[in-house]
Amino acid sequence: MTFEEQTAAALDPLAQVPDEVLWDVVTRDGACMSVYTDGQAPDFTGDVLSDRELAARICAGCLVRNECLESEFRLVGGASLGVWGALNVEDRQAVYAVWLVRRLGGDQG
Ligand code: SF4
Q1: Distance between CA atoms of 88 and 19, rounded to whole angstroms?
Q2: Domain residue spans in the chain?
Q3: pLDDT, tens digit, for every residue of 64-93?
Q4: CA 41 to chain centre
């Protein structure tokens, strides 16, 4: 199983969770939320390499990475800038393509 397939499959248990519940969990428990409330927002640039480094640093200990990624896929289909679910935009778009096939009833393997 590829990284993209593994990451998309890990989101399957969240498929029936309502949008607002997911968002509440992310905004309550997301590791980056304390960064924002401390007044020092992460400097997401949209640059692939630096965002990947920031994702590794900020999201490493986050307990709601799957919920964060699921929310972003539902809201904007992996297209927002910066880091969500510990992935930069380039990695998210690759996982989103696999996630979408699974949600449309495709590969469930
Ligand atoms: S996965 Fe990263 S971007 Fe998402 S809530 Fe956690 S720390 Fe924030």
Answers
A1: 21
A2: 3-103
A3: 999 999 999 999 998 887 788 989 888 999
A4: 17
Tokens of 84: 């969500």
CA–centroid distance, 6 to ligand 1, in Å, is 18
Determine whether 23 is exposed, middle or buried from the number of CB atoms within 10 Å of its CB (0-12, 13-18, 19+).
Answer: middle
Ligand 1: distance of its center to the CA of 47 in Å? 17
User: How many angstroms separate the CA atoms of 66 and 8, rounded?
Assistant: 9
Atom 5 of ligand 1, nearest CA residue: 30
Ligand 1: residue of 14, 23, 26 to mutate (most ligand atoms within 8 A of CB) is 26
pTM of the full structure: 0.83
Name the closest-CA residue to atom 2, ligand 1. Answer: 59
Which pair of tokens denotes residue 77? Answer: 């289909």
Concatenate the DSSP letters of all residues of 26-48 into one string: HHHH-HHHHHHHTT------S-H
